[in-house]
Amino acid sequence: MRNTTKEIINELNKYRNEEKAAFLPRFFKTGKGQYGEGDQFIGIVVPDIRVVAKQYIDADQDTLRELLASPVHEYRMTALLILTYYYAKHKDNAERKACVDFYLSQVDAINNWDLVDLSCYKILGHWLHDKDKQILYDWAHADHLWKQRIAMISCMHFVKHGEFQDALAIADILQHHPHDLMHKAVGWILRETGKKNEQVLTDYLLPRYKQMPRTMLRYAIERFEEPKRKAFLLGEY
Fold it and tell me: Which of 47, 85, 91, 153 is deepest in the core (most CB within 10 A)?
């Protein structure tokens, strides 16, 4: 193990909390057959992980690779947060492309919903904003839960800039996904679309909402005024 990796782990371990370490495996569904099977937790909260990540923003990819290879969830999250900070700090396209290429190469370590949500749209989504987005469509069709979630949540960057086409197209691909985690992901992005433009979301929902998974619909319409929200829930809009 590299010295920098040891330093980061030692720094993180100062924030360990045994009570949280006992709770988090249940929250992140780490039991046999569950989506987070095998994930290990040492009980460090995200704000503390961010503190450490900001101290090591220039850690090299070998260090990040070692952290991402760990079964400890918080170590992997630290590596991903370091990568997001590094990407934001460096404006050079070559530096950013190297970050994106590294991120894509480590997708098997980005294997829980919070790891996806804290990183993908800030790296992959940002990078693809003015580029060909085919990889998101390919991953939306992949038989790989985390690639599919990355495909959906990466669209957050486009939505924040008032660009909805790709988000809605990928939402269509994933609309009848069997996993609740994807229902929540799609619903979240639809809700964010509605925050930017309620009419776009309404027009999208009208021909689809009666067939949508209930969780997805509830997330999508969360910001609607109460009469409109109830009408959608009752199938009467």
Answer: 153
